[in-house]
Amino acid sequence: RIYPLMRVTLTTSDGASVTVSRQLTKHSGFIEKAITDMAVDDNAVPLSAVAVDVDDATLKLVIEWLTEHRDDALPYPEKTDEERRADDIPAWDQAFVQKWDTKEDQQQTLYAVITAADKLDIKGLLDMTCKTLANKINGKTVEEMREILQLECDFTEEELAEIRKENAWCEN
Amino acid sequence: MGTVLSRLLLGSIDGQSQQNMSALPNELLLNILTNVSTNDLNRARLVDRRLSRVANSVRNTRAKPRFTLTISSHADNDTLSIRLQRRWRSGGVTEELSTFDMEAFHLMDIDVIEIEGLTERTGSENSIRFLNLAAELSSSLNTVSELRLTNVLFPDSAKAELLKFFKAIVPQCTHVFVRDCLLPVAIPADTIAISNRLRTFKWSHSLAAEGEQEMSEEVIRLVSLKLNLQCTTVELSEAACSSIVGLFQQWMTMAQPTLFSLSLLNRSSEWQSQLLAVCTRAGYRNYQGEFEHPGAGCAHIKVLTGLDSCQLLPVLDVPAKTREMPVVMARWFRDR
């Protein structure tokens, strides 16, 4: 049984610690597992000590998201590939992510949150951030995708031609 | 609070290694790309090698597998075997099922049901059980498009179950093949009448104790109904000369003749010459077994007669070259 008033202290990789209520941490599969399995003292979970490298700034964003979504249904509803759609992100989440979209940042924060959501096993946040990134490349050309994702082309011209030929058969 | 946060944000960028797509593990890339549309996936395959591999695997999971359910008996010990073949676009995997798992049927898109090689012994108990179950599950087996019965012998005791099975499965099928079978009853005519998806119907070298004549009549009626809609391929062992001539005459009155293919097996040479005689008497010009359409000069019905079977198929001749070489014609027909 989870007591909503119970507090959990999380320590990040850069030494800061944050105390939050169990009501928030129950959405994180990792923290719940840490509390129940590892029998941590005084409900203090050192995130760095257990191979989860989450820094303070990212953790703050994660907690901000958790606070908004503290009443979400658990377990997080799994969707089949067919039911998935990238355009159903709630308005609050959209605004939340938009704040990070600055020139200097170049999606650093988005990647950091995706990684943190994955490591802390927060399915809702992971889903939302992955969709956000997917939306960034939806409908873009190959060159635009490379620019957005900051990836270099490592194909030879022949290989590219081969893939284009394959694609020609399955364009809708 | 706001200033503290921004300071920490800056700190994280300076202090941490650069975060970008290439730092993400494959599972996360997969998670991201499952939200991307198929056309965008195709483009993502061109970005770089790693993304291409991940996009490929998303594409493969998206192509839904189809299933072939095969019921057959082992020749050596007469036991029934049930196989389920999962067909991906890339190829198939066959797995052996030990029982008829009701749950499994609900989850899968079974589109081909094959029943083959049932002898009298295995054919009785187990196959009746299967027929019953399949009929019961017809609401969940609503994706079936092909039914193949090969070398099957059902005892007379299976008649009621077989009827139920045909009624549940045949109306959703596009292709029905019955080959070398001995059945207590044929597919009922009223079931054929509501099978509006049917495009291929082959009843070859098979015998039914009853209802075969009615079934054949109904199938031929179905072909004539669909003459101007789609090309139907039909093979029958039992057919009355009069209904074939009826179909023949209907085709001759069409403004724009279309293609179909009708094979009649097990027809004596007397039957065949009778058919030819009736068609000739009806007044159509016959040139080497091809009856000319009265309206469209380049359309014919070719009647191929053989030792104990004959085939009717429309042949449409269209000029392959319009200028200077009017003699070259391309022939369009369906022979299978």
TrEMBL record, chain A:
This protein's record includes keyword Transferase: no
Q: Which GO terms describe its biological process?
A: ubiquitin-dependent protein catabolic process
Q: What residues does the SKP1 component dimerisation domain cover?
A: 123-170
Q: In which domain of life is the source organism classified?
A: Eukaryota
The record's annotation in Pfam families points to: Skp1 (PF01466), Skp1_POZ (PF03931)
Magnesium keyword on record: no
**Keywords from the UniProt entry:** Ubl conjugation pathway
**Listed InterPro entries:** SKP1, SKP1-like, SKP1-like_dim_sf, SKP1/BTB/POZ_sf, Skp1_comp_dimer, Skp1_comp_POZ
Q: Which residues form the SKP1 component POZ domain?
A: 8-71
| Annotated SUPFAM superfamilies | POZ domain (SSF54695), Skp1 dimerisation domain-like (SSF81382)
Family in the record: Belongs to the SKP1 family.
Return the PANTHER family for the record. Answer: SKP1 (PTHR11165)
Q: What is the name attached to this protein's record?
A: Skp1-related protein
Per the UniProt record, the source organism is: Pristionchus entomophagus
Automatic annotation (TrEMBL), chain B:
| Every F-box domain range | 18-66
The UniProt entry, under InterPro entries, shows: F-box-like_dom_sf (IPR036047), F-box_dom (IPR001810)
SUPFAM superfamilies to which the protein is assigned, alphabetical = F-box domain (SSF81383)
Q: What is this protein called?
A: F-box domain-containing protein
